[in-house]
Amino acid sequence: MKIKDYPITKIFTNLPLYQPIEFESDDERKLIELYSFDGKIDFYCNECKKESTYSSSLNDENRMRRTHFRYKNFGISTSGNSIPPKKNYLEIKEIFTCDFICARSKDHSIHFMFIYDNYKLLKIGQYPSNADLAYDKNRKYSKILGDQKFKELLRADGLFSHGIGVGSFVYLRRIIENLIENYHIIASQNAPCWDEAKYQKAKVKDKIKMLEGYFPVFFSENAQLYGVLSKGIHELSEIECLEYYPIIKTSIELIMDEELEKREKELKIKAIQKSIDKIVSENT
Length: 284
What we know:
6-stranded antiparallel sheet; single chain; alpha+beta
């Protein structure tokens, strides 16, 4: 991956651990922007139990370190004026941290550690870890997946966070296959004139087509997701799988979100119908 293709905020939120990002000779401003980042990022807060906005936390010590870093390596003074640098722009080595505070509580924070070494950047640490955040963020999906498949969803996130793209795709494909089988069971029990023999012989894309009307709409409209996952396992590179992972994972979340909303609506209808029936019986 190249830094030109990676927005600064995505380095915090999406970059796996130990996945190198390469710099080129004209990218020195990108490194300054990251090291001196004083903006906001959107991230899940495992204390608030919801998505939140985090603001960069630059205490006096960090501000002094970053000012020294800018002067030492890039010849940029506190006023932003250029002065002769002491080293060539990107031929340096530096370990640094970036800290953020949750907008809802100053006691909720997240921390990232990076190492930059001669045109390459690595994220070498994060607290809370993506695994910790993934458990709380994804816990609601255990209602759909069950305990075993929920663990596999967490495993996919864990592999991704450690820069293992193809392996993470394997578990996402298993999640998709599990969802397909769940809707297959529903369709086989409820669809008129269901042809089980035809279903068992069909390719996955044809199985999905046979299950239209039972899948969440988003799944039916994006049935090619399974093909992308299969291609990732057999053909795509680790880098490509890591690049696509957040998009595929979010797509699967949307499928499950739609199913959760459907179940919640059904529960509300049952509850209100019971209340309506009671009112009617008391007034007739």
